[in-house]
Amino acid sequence: MTAFLMISFVALLTVGVPVAIALGGASLLYVMAEDVSPHLVVLHRMVSGVDSFPLLAIPFFIMAGSLMNSAGITARIYDFALALVGWLKGGLGHVNVVGSVIFAGMSGTAVADAGGLGNIEIKAMRDHGYDVDFAVGITGASSTIGPIIPPSLPMVIYGVMANCSIGQLFAAGLLPGLLMAATMMGMVAWYAHVRGFHRDATFAWARLAYTAKRAFLPLMTPVLLIGGMTTGIFTPTEAAIAATAYALVLGLFVYRTLSFRGLVRVSMETVETTAIILFIVAGASIFGYIITTTKVTDEVASMVLSVTSEPWAVLLLVNIFLLVVGCFMETIAAITILVPVLLPLMTQIGVDPVHFGLIMVLNLMIGLLTPPVGMVLYILARVADISFERTTRACLPFLVPLLVTLGIVTYWPWFVMLLPNYFYR
Predict the structure, then answer these.
(1) Residues contacting 304, CB < 8 A, separation 6+
(2) Crossing angle of the two packed helices 399-411 and 166-195, in degrees rounded to 10
(3) 53 secondary structure, DSSP code
(4) Is the dihedral of CA 366, 351, 417, 162 positive or negative?
(5) CB 1 within 8 A of CB 30
(6) Is the distance from CB of 319 to CB of 409 less than 8 angstroms?
(7) What 3-state DSSP class applies to 89?
(8) Using alpha carbons only, how large is the chain's radius of gyration in Å?
(9) Beta-carbon count within 10 A of 17 CB
(10) 176 FRET partner, CA 20 to 30 A, in 52, 141, 154, 421?
(11) What's the pLDDT tens digit per position in 253-299?
């Protein structure tokens, strides 16, 4: 019957049924075949799956990122990053990475970064004579920093599914996110040396001060969120509300760049995206419940441990599996489906749930740059007006710094757990 559940799910996906309906539909077929009474248990489990306070953060983080883009705040961030690191060789490549690090502290999603900052960055790099493939590749890679540096939408979903502290997950993502930025900037420096890239700006304290002044209020967003969470002023969920309120104040009253029509459009986009995500979470809740009650998680753990019981080897196998899954499945769906399956295995080999959260999210962020389902690839193809195949080839070299970071995050747990242990334990 467990095989029937899995086959039903895969069959529904194969014929083009949306992930959320495939999860709920396969679960309903299983309940009917097993003659579990009442069948309404499916609806009850789906409702209880989304009846979670931390999930309230989802619409607010989505809306905060959209407001930042719509209010023109991303342009101020880009100008500041240009004044800060544009004087380096290959300057706009470094600007690309630094801009993503700053924006990551506001939005928490790779898609918002690629669609917002990416539009500005690719155009600027083209105007300065950079190869389009290089511009697209570094933009795609840097956008994956968004869900690693707090706040992070995938971390919220993982925290709910794994029943672990979202605050600890946010703290755990800060150092790995900065490491991702450092490795990417190292690769940009290597490209600049090999290809003879020029400097795109001259360093001037006056310009740095001017752009910092223009971007000061947006730059305070990460300080507001991270400072508020670490000092206990508000929870991660309340931080999402604070981010949205702050973005509204900036767009409507401070800069006055956000119109009423723009606010309505952002609100409708937020409602649509939130509904899709929560529908997936609801479907995954009943699917995960069935997998847990049928002892599938125990069987998966036993099967893997029968191959090897060495923690490093198990982590390697799980990483490979997640990288493959990331090629074919959307991030939120993958987290909601796989956490109930893989987390018990990780617990058996002594991996902290917070550490595994970083491993899982980073693997799935790499999946955003791999075909056929890489969402960032589709966005960049549209922004740069090039083919999907060319976008994929452009991003492939920039998987190297991401994989290096993944290796460090996987096998150096102290690096990931340093801040969570300091602030929360």
Answers:
(1) 314, 317, 318, 345
(2) 140
(3) G
(4) positive
(5) yes
(6) no
(7) strand
(8) 22
(9) 15
(10) 52
(11) 888 888 888 889 989 988 888 888 788 778 877 777 777 677 666 67
Neighbours of 8 (CB within 10 A): 18
Question: Is 26 within the bounds of a domain?
Answer: no
Sole residue written with tokens 């800069």: 255
Angle, helix 166-195 to helix 91-104, in steps of 10 degrees: 170
Q: 286: helix, coil or strand?
A: helix
pLDDT tens by residue, 111-161: 777 777 788 888 888 888 899 999 999 999 999 998 899 888 899 889 988
Does residue 332 sit within a domain? yes
**β-bridge partners, 199:** 89
Q: In this structure, are residues 60 and 271 in contact, taking their beta carbons and an 8 Å threshold?
A: no
Q: Is the distance from CB of 423 to CB of 231 less than 8 angstroms?
A: no
Mean pLDDT of the chain, nearest integer? 86
Residue 399 Cα distances to 41, 365, 366, 388, angstroms: 43, 11, 7, 17
72: its two tokens: 């023109």
Question: Alpha carbon of 263 to those of 71, 165, 219: distances in Å?
Answer: 9, 32, 22
Using alpha carbons, select from 308, 325, 327, 306 the residue that is nearest to residue 316. Answer: 308
- Domain range enclosing 349: 40-424
Nearest alpha-carbon partner for 184 in 417, 362, 397:
397
- Indicate the pTM of the whole model: 0.84
* Amino acid occupying residue 424: Y
384, 136 Cβ separation under 8 angstroms? yes
Q: What domain count does the chain have?
A: 1
Q: How far is CA 30 from CA 18, 22, 45, 324, in A?
A: 18, 12, 14, 26
Tell me if 268 is assigned to some domain: yes
- b/e sequence 305-336, b meaning 16+ C-beta within 10 Å: eeeeeeeeebbeebbeebbebbeebbbbbbbb
Distance CA 302, CA 65 (A): 42
DSSP 8-state code for residue 396: G
Q: How many CB atoms lie within 10 A of CB 422?
A: 10
Tens digits of residue pLDDT in 38-52: 667 777 778 877 877
**pLDDT interval class at 85 (50, 70, 90):** very high
Q: Is 131 left (phi over 0), alpha (psi -120 to 50) or beta?
A: beta
Question: In what helix (H) or strand (E) does residue 25 lie, and over which residues does it extend?
Answer: helix 19-33
Whether residue 189 is contained in a domain is answered as: yes
Find, among 378, 268, 279, the residue nearest to 22 by Cα.
279
